[in-house]
Predict the structure.
Amino acid sequence: MTDQLYDPSLGLQALAHVEDLAALEDWRVAYLGRKSELMQAFGALGQVAADKRRETGQLLNEAKRQLEQAYEARKDAMSRAALTAQLERERVDVTLPGRPLPRGHAHPITQVIQQISDLFRSMGFQIIEGPEVEWEHYNFTMLGIPADHPARDETDTFWLTDKMLLRTHTSPVQVRSLLHVGQPPIRVLVPGRVYRNEATDASHEAVFFQMEGLMVDDRTTMSDMMGMLSYMARGVFGQERKTRFGCDQGFPFVEPGAQMSIDCGVCQGAGCRVCSYSGWLEILGCGMVHPDVLRGVNIDPDRYTGWAFGLGVERIAMLKHGIDDIRLFQGNDLRFLRQVG
Ligand code: PHE
């Protein structure tokens, strides 16, 4: 072979049939490797006749250049094809719509608290909170509920010590906030949990929410109270709702005491089971702050007057959404919570 010309076309033809990287490596070893025919021809150059050596060397170099170039080109083409295939495989369709994120909402009780808070905030009320563990002094005594009053009965109060209890209503915050500001004017709204030691049924829970409202000012009147409470009721239940006030002797800390009703939304006032055929639904207790309560916090009842109300948040939410069991609010059942609000 020493004087025979090396022909690269065999290698170039073989390269055309190489399909993968392993075959390509085999090809490289066979045609460009140390033991390849080409390299052996280089090794034998010394035996070529001196006058032909230069020419043979050039031919071999040219053959090697061709093979190497073809090899690089083939390798390039193969890796480009591999990349294209990978991109094709991993292709992302940017036009696909995104996965919707489920959007939650506030608990129905929280929603009612927020709505009523907004309505009273718009009338200049401040939203405040008080402690759930309370002194009997604030919960009862200063509200004109003496030691022998039936409201203190241990059957409906959770006593912690003989002087401390879980508050049975938000009214003690009336006393606390009056003591805090010192002198009128004051307008506060107090949402919060209250506790009663009672058996649970469709309309009673031992733990529930109330909102207390209190306004004390220079001669604020019962008609101020009726106007603001009616405004609140229409904001919550709809502008077409009617309100009605009736006497209520049940709260020693107000005089006169009253309760407010709205016309029944189920029968439009005609009378049905929901409203016990009266056409009206009682939604809160209210009244003019008793002069003794004002005196108890060093406010002169001849100079200032006040009014207060307390409502049960669950009851409002039940009437608003047509819910017939108070226990659903604490039941943590998403099927219920998703339906309401
Ligand atoms: N605290 C009373 C209750 O628990 C409600 C109420 C508040 C009544 C303020 C009158 C004035 O039912």
